[in-house]
Amino acid sequence: MWKRKKPDTPQAADSKLTDLQTNQPTKVTPALGREHPPKMNNDAMRPLDATANRATGWLGPGLHVKGDITGSEDLLIDGSVEGRIQLDERKLTVGTTAKLTADINARDVVVYGYVKGNVRAKGRIEIKKDGSVIGNLTTAQIMIEDGADFKGSIEIDRSAAEEADKNLSTRAASAGAGPKNI
After folding, report:
1. Which of 38, 63, 126, 178 falls between 20 and 30 A from 29, CA-CA?
2. Residue 109: exposed, middle, or buried by beta-carbon count in 10 A (0-12, 13-18, 19+)?
3. Does residue 10 sit in helix, strand or coil?
4. What's the N-to-C CA distance of the chain in angstroms?
5. Contact yes or no for 105/122 (Cβ under 8 A)
């Protein structure tokens, strides 16, 4: 009665396994015979808002980019970038091994590594414990943890946050998720 049914189709033994939380391939340790997802900092991948289903691009620690980066998905950078980063409505996470010499424009920016350049965020800028920013910040919300390095100026721009809130409520209403009158 409470027994689970076995699937009708057999599972392939050599299929690639992925961790559903991080969408990264799992590693199999032969000596232990267990599967382990790659170690990642969970804070770096945690979204600031409830949109956890967004795609996230990744620039690995062995990559170096000179030029402009623009995109329409969240981005995690662990490598180095020289140039400009433009992610208007998306989140940029600067990983612990990242070294950026760039001007940044994004919805939200979280810094665990090193950034030299001006940072503009419509929503929020976070500089974590071991993060370092040299440049001017313009945002609606700011959080700088103890132990973080920061040299520059901060401008609180509430108009960008109000505009982002209007865009969010407009998108929610058009999706039918807005308040309903009875």
Report:
1. 63
2. buried
3. coil
4. 43
5. no
